[in-house]
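Kindly review this record before class:
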Amino acid sequence: MTVQLNELLFIYLTITQGGCMFPNNHWGEWNDSQLQPTIQRLMKGYNRYLRPNFNEGPVEIGMSLDIASIDAISEINMDYTATIFLRQRWRDSRLVFPGNESVSVDGRLVSLLWIPDTFIPDSKRSFLHDVTVENRLIRIFSNGTVLYALRITATIACNMDLTKYPMDKQVCTLQLESWGYNIQDVVFYWTRGNDSVKGLDTLRLAQYSVESYYTSVSEAVYETGHYPKLVLHFSLRRNVLFFILETYVPSTLLVVLSWVSFWISQSSVPARTCIGVTTVLTMTTLMMGARTSLPNANCFIKAIDVYLGICFTFIFGALLEYACAHFYTMQNQTIVDLHRELLREFAESNGNGVVPIVSSSQPTQSVDVGSTAEEPTEGPGNSDVKNDAASTEKAPSQGCGLSSVRDASRRAAAVFIVENPHNIDSHARTVFPTAFLFVNILYWLYYLFL
């Protein structure tokens, strides 16, 4: 009976003390009556404003990470958003208690303990998850070791080199530093070296694949002193297959489509003009769409910009080829029509039956158009002319310099004269595909292997 009364009394005291454990739900205010006996003993005389080993040396803080996810990688803002589990371990001799067990306490008890002031220096935005409660973990071991874990989502800056986009490889970092304690106060280290980071091996990203990662220990130097710093380096290789299907293949097909005009007759002006203008406008739209997801930075001439520029040059060149071919065709036709008109007027004004036929490539020749025309006879007048020409040839030439200049100018002008404009299309059918294939080989060799 006495034992039962003692048990009832113990239950009554427990209930009455538990009813006032968290008055008014102020979870951030604690006193000795609100803590477990073990925590009461540990908190007695504990000053959370003083770090462990005060005046005895720096506190060694071990770090480990679990990369839960990398949600987004932005080339425009040059940053990435990641959710990480950050675990910190250090030893506080003031929290030693007998036994070999550990004590897991509520994360809201963090306000009673000293914790490191670790921060992410390259973070743009970050927050601690609080559903359903703040995602903190505090575990105290019997030898005074404290395990403090957090679940954080942070948007971290990453300096990217986009000159080889989309065949690029980016190296991003995740840095951890101490805000107020310098290297004389705290020392950071990775608990297991490269094995301190988990989750990157199994991470699956939309446009990237994780090639490699490693950890390093260094110091951050500021005006106020030297501070401990841990750095996680990881390399991201972009998956180029998506861009090949979305950009490279359509732009290549547009170039091939522009070559169709080489097999269309030059007299079909609307057809060839329509193909040329349509391919140019489509290529312009494709170039604008490829740049919407990229930063408008003048310092980056990206690989995709180079390829789109090459394709646009070939497409625009095909349009100019038809313009040149049409121009020379019209010029040749105009010269032929002019010669015919002159010959017709000459024949009408001189009815002697001999009509000089003038071609664009040969000197003026005379043919006999009469059915009974006789061979021209050499008369005395003609002999006198021949004698004068012979004497002129024998005499020293005084105008040889001027004639040589005229001949040189005629030869230079003959380079730009196309005797048969239809040959322009014939040569273009070979030159354009060969040049495009050669440029593609150089492009892919440079951006993939150099």
